[in-house]
Design goal:
Radius of gyration: 27 Å
Low-confidence stretches: none
Structural class: mainly alpha
Shape: elongated
Number of domains: 2
Number of strands: 0
Length: 172
């Protein structure tokens, strides 16, 4: 059988791998568990993979990395990708904007007291919060903050002509 043999982790590596197991991050937990199972129990890459729900080649790659370079080689690497264009300050400005009346900002579509994604993007650009923003960017920024543009627009007003009277609690 083609087993990957790794050296037993040192005491310092064991402490760090123990932290990885408790960290709540799946990537670190799985790597630490793979090293412990291989070093302490002599489990094969296939057995470890089956137990962790991973592909055997993934486990073998991790074990080879640990054997060759220790914990630094085993640590998850930051994945590349485009940096976020809109930070938390844009999200805060957007949520604040959606809690105001569209008429107060002279919305381009004049959408009868309701925000649209296009209106929100246009107002943020016009007020200098951002240089440019697409509809999908508005949706993503709100989703990242756990908000919905539809929920916010319903809080503001209603197209019902009786809304203000009913909102005030006056009898019908």
């Amino acid at each position: 059988m083609n087993r990957v043999r790794i050296r037993p982790p040192s005491a310092a590596e064991r402490r760090e791998l123990g932290r990885w197991r408790r960290a709540g991050k799946a990537a670190r937990y799985q790597r630490a568990q793979a090293v412990f199972l291989a070093a302490d129990e002599g489990a094969s890459g296939r057995q470890i993979a089956r137990g962790l729900g991973l592909h055997p080649n993934t486990v073998r790659r991790w074990l080879h990395a640990f054997a060759a370079g220790g914990l630094p080689a085993l640590a998850p690497r930051r994945r590349g990708g485009r940096a976020r264009v809109f930070g938390p300050e844009v999200g805060a400005a957007l949520v604040t904007l959606l809690h105001e009346r569209p008429e107060d900002h002279a919305c381009p579509s004049g959408s009868a007291g309701r925000w649209t994604l296009g209106d929100a993007a246009a107002v943020l650009v016009r007020e200098g919060v951002v240089r440019a923003m697409s509809l999908e960017s508005v949706r993503r920024v709100l989703r990242r903050r756990g908000h919905s543009w539809q929920r916010a627009k319903a809080w503001l007003t209603s197209p019902d002509p009786e809304y203000q009277r009913r909102k005030g609690g006056a009898p019908a």
